[in-house]
Specification:
There is one protein chain. The chain is built from nine helices and eight strands. It has about 280 residues and is of the alpha+beta class. The strands form two sheets. Strands 3, 4, 5, 6 and 8 form a five-stranded mixed β-sheet that branches. α6 packs antiparallel against α7, α6 runs parallel beside α8 and α7 packs across α9. The chain is globular. The two termini are about 35 Å apart.
């Protein structure tokens, strides 16, 4: 099997699982910009907030070119790029994931002492720790530690080992330059904060608690089509609270726990959550 075929097959497999993927050239770098995207006008750079999916005829600007569309991945326009590809990467934020990139043994040792256990993937020099949830993607948050999530990409190195857990505040805090500005109560998982940090009109303990309790009950009482029920329940919760910062790791953990009690795997929960976010354009 040629490298081209192997990379494309890997990309199609990951896309089917909900991971937006893209090819990398030698040096673990994305392919260069086309004329339409000169000087990153389409938004491949992490500091550019108005980034969007690539609309060009070939993958040309990093994470924004990542896609789950098999027709695009296997299209004639992408064929030349796959022939030149040296590896496959994915856009973690597009799949509601965060990768903590630990670049050496010292960084790995620090993570084992300071971060909650989660799914891990071995790299050439260290490890990727993968959490469920999105955040910004700063590099160099501490020696040997980068974060890859929104507006970023990570090389695909295999499925890894362990059970993926929710993105903890300890990882979010790494992106905050001044520790005194950390707001532990915000706790939004896989959703952007409300514009201007406005107070959410839903942020009522009774309203939110009632909504989560009803969602748990709906999943628990499902007699059939459990997977569909889980997806539709996640969709309803995200529709009501997904854009305003109400949901915390605890709330999402309760929904996942209810789904797993009905026989859903953690991976199925992750996929259902990601698909619900995609459906709502989050």
């Amino acid at each position: 099997m040629s490298h081209t075929t192997a990379h494309l097959r890997t990309a199609l497999h990951l896309a089917e699982r909900g991971l937006p993927v893209m090819p990398l050239r030698a040096g673990k770098l994305p392919f260069g910009n086309c004329r339409t995207c000169t000087r990153s006008a389409c938004g491949d750079r992490p500091h550019m907030k108005a980034a969007g999916p690539c609309q060009c005829p070939a993958p040309c600007h990093g994470w924004a070119a990542a896609t789950t569309d098999p027709d695009v991945l296997a299209s004639r326009a992408w064929a030349r790029v796959w022939r030149q590809a040296a590896a496959v990467a994915y856009h973690p934020g597009g799949a509601a994931l965060t990768v903590v990139d630990l670049d050496d043994a010292d960084a790995v040792a620090w993570a084992r002492q300071n971060l909650p256990a989660t799914k891990t993937v071995s790299t050439t020099r260290g490890e990727h720790w993968i959490y469920l949830g999105t955040m910004t993607s700063p590099n160099g948050v501490r020696p040997g530690v980068d974060i890859k999530s929104a507006m970023s990409y990570a090389r695909w190195l295999g499925p890894g080992t362990g059970i993926m857990t929710l993105l903890p505040d300890a990882v979010r805090a790494l992106a905050v330059k001044e520790p005194t500005t950390v707001r532990p109560a915000s706790g939004a998982v896989a959703m952007p904060a409300p514009a201007g940090d406005a107070v959410c009109r839903h942020r009522s303990p009774a309203y939110l608690e009632r909504g989560i309790t009803m969602a748990e009950q709906r999943i628990t009482e499902a007699a059939k089509a459990v997977h569909t029920t889980v997806y539709r329940t996640f969709l309803a919760v995200l529709s009501a609270h997904g854009r305003c910062g109400c949901l915390t790791e605890t709330h999402i953990g309760r929904l996942f726990t209810a789904a797993q009690a009905k026989g859903e795997s953690l991976r199925h929960c992750e996929i259902a959550w990601t698909n619900a976010r995609t459906k709502l354009g989050m």
